[in-house]
Amino acid sequence: MTTDLPRESLTRSAEDYLKTIYRLTLGGSLAGTTELALALDLAPASVSGMVKRLAEQGLVDHEPYRGVTLSAEGRRVALRMVRRHRMIEAYLVGFLGYTWDTVHEEAERLEHAVSDTLIERMARALGDPRVDPHGDPIPSADGDIAELVSVPLTDIPPGETAIIRQVNTGQADRLRYLAGYGLTPGTSVTVLERQPFDGPVTIAHDGSHHVLGVELARVLLCSRPDV
């Protein structure tokens, strides 16, 4: 199989597939055809055809009837795309006045067009950030990534304080809502009450109390202050 493919030989679609497979397999599971189709908003038949081509290029390992994982080369390409996307988001917020709820679509378009040289200049201008505006880790230029150890806010017991590390949503309305209350990465919150049966979570932050629905609370990934 062909390995170490130059970036220019990959289509935008192939890059999107590899980035999506990386995200879906973060927990160590395989990415199934149906799961990929839903994530990419494509027909399962189209996904099956692309998975076959990526396997022939040595970019994914395919287990019939189970799913796919990235090969070493596929992971390298995927992390390069993740670095591009998250660095562009950081640059747009840091230098061009974008807010964190407006950068995702811009980064999706730009990540396929910019050069590695431009990405590295952005990184230097930003001081080589380790996370993007949503708290997601940015892979290094060498392809290393330090995945953060965090749990949803819904897993923090009442009475404990935690620090928001990541906000795991790309929905602009949710991001605007959370930003309006200052619930962004690096913020310390205390869980006051958690209702049973997927009920709301009440937190204290900056002298105020906020009640968050369980779906919104789950996108706030947190760690204890000493982590």
User: What overall geometry do the principal axes of the alpha carbons give?
Assistant: globular
**Largest sheet geometry:** 6 strands, antiparallel
Strand content: 15-25%
**What is the alpha-carbon Rg in Å?**
19 Å
Under CATH, the topology of the largest domain can be stated as Arc Repressor Mutant, subunit A
Distance between the termini: 42 Å
Q: Could you say which structural class the secondary elements and strand pairing correspond to?
A: alpha+beta
Q: CATH class of the largest domain, anyone?
A: Mainly Alpha
- Tally of alpha and pi helices: 8
Helices and strands, in order, run as: HHHEEHHHEEHEEEHE
Low-confidence stretches: 1-5
Widest sheet, order of strands: 3-8-4-5-6-7
CATH superfamily grouping of the largest domain: Winged helix-like DNA-binding domain superfamily/Winged helix DNA-binding domain
User: How many strands?
Assistant: 8
Count of the domains: 2
CATH architecture of the largest domain: Orthogonal Bundle
Mean pLDDT: 93
Helix coverage percent of residues? 40-55%
Fold and architecture overview:
The protein has 227 residues and is α+β, with helices and mostly antiparallel strands. The chain folds into two domains: 1-147, Winged helix-like DNA-binding domain superfamily/Winged helix DNA-binding domain (Arc Repressor Mutant, subunit A), CATH 1.10.10.10; 151-223, SH3 type barrels (Roll), CATH 2.30.30.90. The protein has helices at residues 12-24, 33-40, 44-56, 72-95, 103-110, 116-126, 172-180, 214-218; strands spanning 60-63, 67-70, 151-152, 161-167, 188-194, 201-205, 208-212, 220-223. The strands form two sheets. Strands 3-8-4-5-6-7 form a six-stranded antiparallel β-sheet. A two-stranded antiparallel ribbon has the order 1-2. Strand 1 (60-63) and strand 2 (67-70) form a beta hairpin. Helix 2 crosses helix 3 and helix 4 crosses helix 5 (103-110). The chain is globular, with a radius of gyration of 19 Å. The model is unreliable at 1-5 (pLDDT under 50).
